[in-house]
């Protein structure tokens, strides 16, 4: 098992639009493609409160590549993402990390 940590740095004032896109659109596509979330967080204290951090759980990198690739290529997802940003951009920058649990981790 691996965990992917994704941090979306939003344009100022656009975090609510990103949260709406996840609740109204993205999570349904995650379910469609078998993408399993661990959780989502906003930043209470840190360098920016315009960020959304979330974790995804994968069986392997091959599992991630197959599912994420299918999701990212879905024409309906691409159209809905574009529509959500028709007014203005939502995400300015994405950080992406792949994490492997230690022998003493509660999540394995």
UniProtKB/TrEMBL annotation:
Coiled-coil annotated spans: none
One Pfam family in the UniProt entry: NIPSNAP
Alphabetized Gene3D superfamilies for the sequence: 3.30.70.100
InterPro entries: Dimeric_a/b-barrel (IPR011008), NIPSNAP (IPR012577)
Boundaries of every NIPSNAP domain copy: 3-105
Domain of life: Bacteria
Name of the protein in question: NIPSNAP family protein
């Amino acid at each position: 098992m691996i965990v992917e940590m994704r941090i979306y740095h939003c344009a100022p004032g656009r975090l609510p639009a990103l949260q709406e896109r996840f609740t109204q659109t993205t999570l349904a596509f995650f379910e469609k493609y078998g993408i399993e979330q661990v959780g989502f967080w906003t930043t209470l204290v840190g360098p920016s409160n315009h960020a959304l951090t979330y974790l995804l759980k994968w069986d392997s990198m091959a599992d991630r590549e197959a599912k994420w690739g299918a999701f990212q290529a879905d024409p309906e997802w691409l159209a809905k993402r574009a529509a959500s940003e028709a007014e203005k951009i939502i995400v300015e920058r994405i950080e992406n990390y792949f994490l492997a649990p230690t022998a003493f981790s509660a999540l394995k």
